[in-house]
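Changelog-adjacent note: as of this version, every example in the card shows the full chain rather than a window. The one below runs 178 residues end to end.
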Amino acid sequence: MIQLAWASLRPRTPVPGQVLLDPSVTVLRVHPGDLDVYLHVNNGAYLQMMDVGRSNYLADIDGFRRLRPRGWYPVVAASTMRYKRSLRLGDKVTLTTRVLGWDERVVFLEQAFTCRGELYAKGYVAGRFLGPHGARVPAPDVVALMAEGAPLSSPALPDEVAAWARALDIAHRDLEGA
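Full-length structure tokens:
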């Protein structure tokens, strides 16, 4: 929680030249509070680490400066995880966050945890943006703002992400036939 508060309230400096579709890298260390009774990282701790990674992603592309004047902020609409290996106390973890694409409603992200050069876990997140009084902000409006007005069309979503979005009914209706 401390890492998340720090990443959100005192974001790191934007990365010169970092753009919307570039991956963002966050390096974390597994702390005692991240562990469960089996002495590996608790599933909820992964989600908190992912929050930190998304905050760092926004900082890297100078997103906080762009979002704040409009009162826009990100929320998670849905997430899913796949765990391959157990992270343990003291492990140095690299969390790579990247935007996979977007539709009218949400932005889809992939967040991959690697340690010692191997994939340990991967998550997908569907994120929405809300504005003042909780009003939904269309994802293309956020993308246009983050891309400094450059007209961008979404890359094609990986099949498994599009299927997941349809299964949870978070996808924009245009994905129904995808």
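Structural remarks: The chain has a mean pLDDT of 90.
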